[in-house]
Design brief:
Elements (H helix, E strand, L loop, with lengths): L8 E5 L2 E8 L9 H22 L3 E8 L4 E4 L2
Parallel strand pairs: 2-3
Antiparallel strand pairs: 1-2, 3-4
């Protein structure tokens, strides 16, 4: 299977990597769990791609909601 996507941001913290994906979705009643449910698989795929290409572990993956102006831990 071939999947096409663009990783917004990742950076190293010590020996590990932190992944951040920006989202502009409207968040109904500040329920950010809907964002996590909608995008978890996408972040899991990005995590695998980063780990395979860098040989380092992704220790955390966040969604940054521009609508909420907040970060949401996803993985």
């Amino acid at each position: 299977m071939i999947v096409h996507g663009i990783i917004d941001l990742y950076f190293t913290e010590g020996e590990d990597i932190v992944l951040v994906d920006y989202k502009t979705d409207h968040v109904y009643k500040h329920d950010t769990s809907a964002l996590v449910k909608k995008y978890r698989i996408q972040l899991e795929m990005y995590k695998k791609a980063i780990e395979r290409s860098t040989g380092k572990k992704v220790k955390e993956a966040f969604i940054y909601s521009l609508y909420e102006d907040s970060e949401i831990l996803c993985i």
